From TrEMBL:
It holds the Pfam family Molybdopterin. One of its GO terms (cellular component) is outer membrane-bounded periplasmic space. GO terms for biological process: anaerobic respiration. PROSITE patterns: 4FE4S_MOW_BIS_MGD. SMART domains: Molybdop_Fe4S4. One of its GO terms (molecular function) is oxidoreductase activity. Belongs to the prokaryotic molybdopterin-containing oxidoreductase family. Keywords: Iron, Iron-sulfur, Metal-binding. Residues 10-68 form the 4Fe-4S Mo/W bis-MGD-type domain. SUPFAM superfamilies: ADC-like, Formate dehydrogenase/DMSO reductase, domains 1-3. This is Molybdopterin oxidoreductase. It comes from Desulfatibacillum aliphaticivorans.
Length: 738
């Protein structure tokens, strides 16, 4: 029987975590003596509305109360990167940081200050990614990065094709589909909306056929797919071109849809039929490129064209590559060819899946101000030509090169100091060994962090940060919701931890920046944020109920369908493109005049593909998808989650055997950028010629430069595609027994 005394001491707090995860689990945190002792998931009684809690949120208390959390400000006591620190007071820490900021601004100009922000804390008020830009804008400016590390390829493609990034349907619409093609989408592992798997399973029960096109036999495919079509990474566009070829030559495409809603199909057809380059994009041609039998390609083309409605689900993984944007443009073009855009049970494609109701509502109630460093010169946003943006900002996947080479290397600034929060980029962007080099050379590095991460070890100054359990805030569900979540503070801050906002407020006094402090109670600010936001204010009419429930679920009368208005009433609802139509041919892209960005989607060979001369030396294509048991590198320390899924490298039995490797063997994977030590997972679940290691394990180089942590980015390239995608899934490696 329950001890009544004990239960009286326990408070139940409704909250969520704020990780950069594709879902948002409503949680009931049981708190006793400033400690979370138990966690329950969503208690919504309707099983179709209940948001099933993920394994990471079930382990959340092991993260919040982990013994290795940073508890005090510290300054470096050893060599850079060595990880030795000494404890200091907040006063000393803020003196060091404010002196450095002032000195750098005055001596070298504000552009020499690099601000590294990230999505590590996806809430609206306390995030450093919101608070620090506002502070530094008032202080005189800074240099920062551009290019969404997650999805720049998909963003670019959606803007070209549709003029909008809101290309998703609410998830229950999958129940209207007859055929669902999971093209590089694995929501059973990488959370892509907390309710997604539930609706995918229901769609399957409802009779939908499901086909997965993937180099790996994914968890989602194992759960719901009727068929797995293994494909080489980076070659999806060749297969899609051949599907277009089959539809055109067999007259299976929806010409009246194309005539009414799109422009440029004729030019695309010229490319597909080979009128443009002398190469018809036949299934036989594609087979040689992508490793999928010609007949399988033709069958899928016929099946997709016949099943109405059908949802081709492209996502961001294949788009995070050297051909990133072409894959999403191609998918969207196939969707138009089959008349599936703007239709229930269809899909617009474009890789993003967001809907404008529940999508990441970043609060506009606290204007960040303008960055003086960026107020003159070319525009930063709103251009498809990334060269316009390069002038003032650093591409996210080029941070290390920018620090090492500065203006002499064509970057916008000579970086003299950096301040980082809500990211672990040493671990999470391309080429960690170059990052090691850059961070060792960087004159001064301040890091706001919760843990002594791979990157935090390189800090000169470390500022300890609270977790979402230690403050109240507004979080959001992405990509599709539709619901809003409220984090109620569960425990008082541990140790001397503060939120980034609180750190910025304290620092503003040391910097002499006036009027930075918000000067109101946390709860009042949160209410103001909800009320001021044009979308949330429409739905959340009772703030107190929202706070008490920790969630506001939006009741949709019918599923949200991207571009429904544009399709049902095109006269009054043009697409937001220059032509007002879906642009299969884009004049804006033609004007960029770059071979990497053709005006119609194309298969373009890339570096480190199977035709690269490097393939002789490094004959395996490496995939680095998102880990099931972590959010990127977050929660890496949580023992439960490590046990749930050990860090391994997937390799096909034929590739393993050729290297004398057995399941569980210690192996090394390497290329010219680095070498990792990891264990082999020998499995038929991956296509021969392809290996896979999930991203996010912490970089941990030994004295010989071998990364004992086996961080995926020790092997990836620090480069980007023509449309700005970070190329995390375009690397060649070799594998050998350790
Ligand atoms: N190889 C490979 N690399 C990838 C990807 C891939 O597919 N393959 N995916 C990319 C993608 S999509 C993404 S989004 C990025 C993610 O890249 P990052 O954002 O760098 O990754 P996280 O591991 O989420 O790191 C977030 C960090 O923020 C810290 N943090 C959490 N809350 C707070 C806070 O309130 N304040 C401060 N100051 N810190 C906080 C956490 O402790 C953690 O160290 O990784 C990218 N990297
Ligand atoms: N558990 C968990 N969930 C997460 C995250 C997390 O870290 N952990 N991170 C969240 C974030 S920030 C993001 S941006 C999203 C990312 O979501 P995604 O970008 O969709 O996720 P990935 O895992 O990178 O890739 C999805 C799939 O693409 C496949 N793939 C890779 N390259 C190719 C290719 O060339 N062709 C084909 N056909 N398939 C390919 C991979 O095998 C993988 O199964 O996930 C979110 N959800
Ligand atoms: Mo991401």
């Amino acid at each position: 029987m329950e001890n009544p005394q004990q239960s009286q001491d326990v408070r139940i707090v409704r909250a969520t975590s704020a990780f950069d995860c594709g879902g948002r689990c409503p949680l009931l945190l049981h708190v006793k003596d400033n400690k979370i002792i138990r966690i329950e998931g969503d208690d919504h009684p309707d099983s179709d509305r209940q948001l099933r809690t993920c394994l990471r949120c079930r382990a959340y208390r092991k993260y919040v109360h982990h013994p290795e959390r940073l508890m005090h400000p510290q300054k470096r006591a050893g060599a850079k990167g060595e990880g030795r620190f000494e404890r200091i007071s907040w006063d000393e820490a803020l003196c060091i940081l404010s002196d450095k900021l002032k000195e750098t601004r005055d001596k070298f100009g504000p552009e020499s200050i690099l601000l590294m922000t990230g999505g590590g804390y996806l809430a609206s008020l306390h995030s450093g990614s919101m608070a620090a830009p506002r502070l530094l804008n008032q202080f005189g400016g800074y240099t920062t990065h551009y290019g969404n590390i997650s999805s720049e390829g998909a963003v670019w493609a959606s803007l070209v094709q549709y003029g909008s990034v809101m290309v998703g349907h609410s998830r229950e619409d999958m129940l209207n589909s007859k055929l669902i093609i999971l093209w590089g989408w694995d929501p059973a592992r990488m959370i892509s909306g907390s309710n997604t798997m539930h609706h995918l399973l229901k769609a399957k029960e409802n009779g939908a056929r499901v086909i997965s096109v993937e180099p790996r036999y994914t968890d989602t495919a194992a759960a719901v797919a009727d068929k797995w079509i293994p494909i080489y990474p980076g070659t999806d566009t060749a297969m899609m071109a051949a599907m277009a070829y089959v539809m055109i030559t067999e007259n299976l495409h929806d010409q009246s849809f194309l005539d009414k809603y799109t422009i440029g199909f004729d030019k695309f057809k010229e490319y597909i039929l080979g009128d443009e380059d002398g190469q018809a994009k036949t299934p036989q041609w594609a087979e040689a490129v992508c490793g999928v039998p010609a007949e399988t390609i033709a069958d899928l083309a016929r099946e997709y064209a016949a099943a109405k409605p059908a949802a081709l689900m492209d996502c961001q993984g294949p788009a995070r590559s050297a051909m990133g944007e072409q894959y999403c443009r191609f998918a969207a073009t196939l969707s138009a060819m089959t008349g599936n855009v703007g239709k229930p049970g269809g899909s617009a494609c474009g890789g993003l899946m967001g809907i404008p109701i529940g999508h990441m509502f970043r609060m506009s109630a606290i204007p960040p101000g303008k960055n003086p460093v960026e107020m003159t010169g070319p525009k930063i946003k709103g251009t498809l030509d990334i060269r316009d943006r390069v002038i003032k900002r650093i591409h996210i996947n080029k941070l290390w090169e920018a620090i090492l080479e500065g203006k002499a290397g064509g970057f916008p600034a000579d970086v003299k100091m950096a301040w980082s929060m809500c990211n672990n980029y040493l671990n999470q962007i391309g080429n960690a060994n170059k990052g090691d080099n850059a961070l060792k050379k960087l004159p001064f590095f301040a890091v706001n962090e919760i843990f002594m991460t791979a990157q935090a070890r390189y800090a000169d100054l470390l500022l300890p940060v609270t977790t979402a359990a230690e403050r109240s805030d507004l979080t959001y569900a992405w990509p599709s919701g539709p619901y809003y979540t409220f984090v109620n503070r569960a425990i008082e801050p541990l140790g001397e931890c503060k939120s980034d906002l609180e750190i910025c407020e304290m620092l503003s006094d040391y910097l002499g920046v006036k009027d930075y402090r918000l000067g109101a109670k946390e709860e009042d600010i949160l209410k103001h944020m909800v009320d001021q936001n044009p979308v949330t204010s429409k739905y959340v009419t009772d703030f107190d109920k929202f706070k008490n429930d920790g969630i506001h679920r939006i009741e949709l009368k019918e599923p949200y369908i991207a571009f429904r208005k544009q399709i049902e009433d095109p006269e009054n609802n043009p697409f937001d493109t220059p032509s007002g139509k879906i642009e299969i041919y884009s004049q804006r892209v033609a004007d960029i005049n770059s071979s990497k960005c053709p005006p119609v989607p194309k298969y373009i060979p890339t570096f480190e593909d199977r035709n690269d001369p490097l393939f002789e030396k490094y004959p395996l294509q490496l995939l680095t998808p998102h880990p099931r048991n972590r959010v990127h590198s977050e929660m890496y320390k949580v023992e439960w989650l490590r046990e749930a899924e050990p860090h391994v490298l997937w390799i096909h039995p034929s590739d393993a055997e050729a290297r004398g490797v057995s399941n569980g063997d210690d192996i090394q994977a390497f290329n010219d950028r680095g070498r990792v030590a990891v264990q082999a997972f020998v499995t038929q679940r991956i296509k021969p010629g392809v290996v896979c290691m999930f991203e996010g394990a912490w970089y941990q180089p030994d004295e010989n430069g071998v990364d004992r942590g086996a961080c995926a980015n020790t092997l990836t390239k620090d480069d980007y595609s023509g449309g700005g995608a970070a190329v995390m899934n375009t690397s060649l490696v070799q594998v050998a027994k350790a």
